């Protein structure tokens, strides 16, 4: 079995200068973090690339989330890009707080066997289309007032069936592998078809 999960090929490294392309189309993400022997994950609809070199991302993390506590303590987080096949999982980890669960490990509750990120060793969600490991660039005011966290991407992976040579290519894969966009009320949309402007 590969690190990405049963039936999934081994993720391939993404050149850091091109890693922003994993988020450029605006997908919903699952944020994962670990600190002091604890780990957690949550869904986030508001994330985006911020810069190319070095690559940076931003994500909104509400003050009430347990995942944010782990990120503030560790200074690290990962963005996992779930697929259409993972929509129920994404809703589940976005609807339940790790702080309020009897079992504090949402990975275990969801039956997930995370794999270690290539650079920071963060717990990554198997079966996703892409993964970004990030170190927090501390901006106290943004974090406390706007819940906005900036991360420098230090490691990036992608499922080669849908991302290679710095580009998404969903057209050749099953629709279940397309990334998703949360549109509220328990509904998602999947990414559509690519086309050239020429």
Quick structural summary:
The chain is an alpha+beta fold and 198 residues long.
Fold and architecture overview:
With 198 residues, the protein is an alpha+beta fold. It is 15% helix and 33% strand. It is built from four helices and 14 strands. It has helices at 66-74, 87-95, 106-109, 140-146; strands at residues 12-13, 29-35, 38-44, 47-52, 55-60, 76-81, 115-116, 123-124, 130-136, 148-158, 163-164, 167-168, 180-182, 188-190. The strands form four sheets. Strands 1, 2, 3, 4, 5, 6, 9 and 10 form an eight-stranded antiparallel beta sheet that branches. A two-stranded antiparallel sheet has the order 7-8. Strands 11-12 form a two-stranded antiparallel sheet. The relative contact order is 0.22.
